[in-house]
Amino acid sequence: GAACNDTTCEDAVDEERRTEMPPLNNERSDRIENVRKAQIELVNEKEKLEDLENAVSKLEQVTKETEETCQNEEMGSEYLEAVRNLVKSMKNCPGLTGAVFEIPAFRKTVDLGVKLLTETDEVTDAKLQQACKNAADAGDEDTIRAAKQSELDERTISGLPETNEGSMSIVGVCPACAGDSHAAAATGHKRKCFRAGGVINATEVSGDCLGSSVLAVCVVDRSLADHNAAKTAEAPAEESVAPAGPPSGPPPHGGGPLKGQMGAKR
Fold first, then answer.
1. Is there a contact between 186 and 158 (Cβ–Cβ < 8 Å)?
2. Fewest Cβ atoms nearer than 10 Å: which of 120, 133, 150, 250?
3. What is the pTM of this model?
């Protein structure tokens, strides 16, 4: 009857999600950026610590070479021991050693054929990974990979376009890839995806994808040092761009702004 088709509850939940998720997404993005800045500061402090260790090593060598003639040998040795203890204490600071922080960086999207209805998630994921490997640029062959669905949902990929600028749906690698239940699918579910032209975030993700042609988002994992260096290298180019003003002639490249490398061929 009509009661069986009543979607009032589902509609209310969807409306609540659309209302409450955007500010939560913004807060998450701010916190992720704060963590990245703190991690970059840790990298800088680690470099300073390494410089200090090198200086101590050189000082120790000079002291050894002058021990026979140095009248204040004992005082010098005590000083070196104090510096050594200071360096050891600094190395115990959380985050300076042990952990390696990496940030996935967007490279391109690649189109490929899949069989989401009849193939397992493992087979689909392997196809996504291989598509990115096949499309790798020079220098990325060993590090390029397909983005995880969770990385796309949470937008933790540096340089990821705001929207899917391609003509096919974007599909990420599992886990967190399962969409709506679908008994006829080999996996028992459809896949999550981002439709062509849609916004790429957890709020706009679709759970109703069974297409045969999709896009893989290809990324490489950058260390914080590499990420920081890339940002620094990009800054002068951005600063040198002249302020927007009335065009003095026909725009280059047919007029539109250049997009990210969306929709690269395999």
1. no
2. 250
3. 0.56
